[in-house]
Design brief:
The chain is an alpha+beta fold. It contains five helices and eleven strands. It has one domain.
Length: 266
């Protein structure tokens, strides 16, 4: 696999890897403790997520609706820029401080091996890598995005001139096949795509303002069956999905954005 350029000012706000598997039984306290021991060097902070489920049956008027709370094991690094979560149906990796594909791949490998050692799951149903980019550049009006993003995305800026021009637009496109491909969600927004006050801290948070969202979900799905969750199967699929998303992102931005924003000296 060839290397890809690392930019000085990357627009990546959050990267999420989701490895779906058949729904498993809840992880018991002993399982969670064992996972913490295996992940302790890199992810020593146990910070579980909580999922509240309300009862769907209608109770008598005098009673309150019942709710159940599920604890979802999650382990974070010390600077709270990355986390591993073990949901009933998936292993998830999140990071606000993306470095290289190889670093993210190693975190996934560590999570998969820990899960399979403590409480093995029955197979793999989907692998997805999601890159949420906040493309920021000097814009005074929506039409200015045509300087920074690909013409295919900026085409809306040329419409509606007699009616004040387009102000906001959003879209979605799917590339590839149902088994392997990338889904792109995009549009112009204000503020942040990723909440700066969330559990994961952003390494550097830009001030709120206009940005162009490029949310890429690159995926692989097994064709006819549910293969065992083996790292030898997952690793090449991870590489293919990550590189596919990188190449597509390059098609979605202009050379001016690369030179004047991504490669701009600090």
């Amino acid at each position: 696999m060839g290397t890809r350029e690392i930019y000085t000012n990357p627009p990546l706000a959050l990267t999420v890897v989701e490895l779906r598997h058949p729904t498993s039984v809840p992880l018991h306290d002993a399982d969670q403790a064992a996972l913490k021991t295996l992940l302790n060097n890199s992810f020593p902070i146990f910070k579980p997520a909580r999922q509240v489920i309300w009862a769907v049956t209608m109770p008598p008027a005098s009673e309150s609706p019942e709710q159940t709370q599920t604890i979802i094991p999650r382990y974070m690094n010390r600077d709270r820029t990355a986390a591993i979560t073990f949901r009933a149906e998936a292993i998830a990796i999140e990071t606000t401080s993306y470095q290289r594909r190889s670093v993210l791949r190693e975190i996934l490998r560590e999570a998969v091996q820990a899960r399979q050692k403590v409480a093995p799951v029955d197979g793999v149903e989907r692998l997805g890598i999601r890159y949420i980019n906040e493309v920021r550049a000097p814009v005074d009006s929506p039409a200015d995005w045509a300087q920074w993003i690909a013409p295919a995305l900026a085409g809306m800026t040329g419409l509606g001139g007699n009616h004040g021009g387009v102000q906001t637009w959003q879209g979605m496109a799917s590339f590839g096949t149902p088994l392997t491909g990338t889904v792109v969600r995009h549009g112009n927004f204000e503020g942040h795509a990723v909440d700066p006050s969330g559990d994961l801290r952003r390494a550097s948070t830009p001030p709120p303002g206009p940005f162009y969202l490029m949310d890429l979900d690159s995926y692989w799905t097994p064709e006819d069956n549910t293969p065992p969750l083996d790292w030898e199967l997952v690793e090449p699929r991870f590489n293919e999905a990550a590189l596919c998303a990188y190449d597509l992102f390059q098609d979605l931005i202009t050379d001016r954005y690369r030179l004047e924003v991504l490669d701009r000296a600090q």
